[in-house]
Amino acid sequence: MANGMYAPELQPREYRENYGEFIGVGPNGNLWVEDCDVAKLAEEFGTPLFLVSESQFRYTYRQFRDAFRRHYPAESQILFANKSNNGLAYRHIMNQEGAGGDCFGVNEMYLALLAGTDAGTLVLNGSNKEDEELEMAVANGLCINIDATDELDRIDAVCRRQNRDADIGIRLKLDLDPLAEREGVAMHGPGTLKEQSDSTKWGMTRDQTVAIVRQAQQMPHIHLRETHFHLSRMSNVAMDFAIMAREMVTWSGHIRDRTGWTPPCIDIGGGWTFGKWYGTGPRGQIDDDSAPTADDYARLCSQEIQAEAERLGLPLPKLRLEPGRSLSGPSGVTVGRVGAVKQGAKKKWVNLDLSTNHLSWSSALDWYYHPVPVVDATAERTETVDLVGPLCNSDELGPHVRMPALERGDYVAFLDTGGYTEPCAARYNAQLLPATVLVSGDRAEITTAREQLQDIAGRFRVPPRLLAASFVRP
Ligand SMILES: Cc1ncc(COP(=O)(O)O)c(C=O)c1O
Question: How far, in Å, is the centroid of ligand 1 from the Cα of 202?
Answer without folding.
Answer: 12
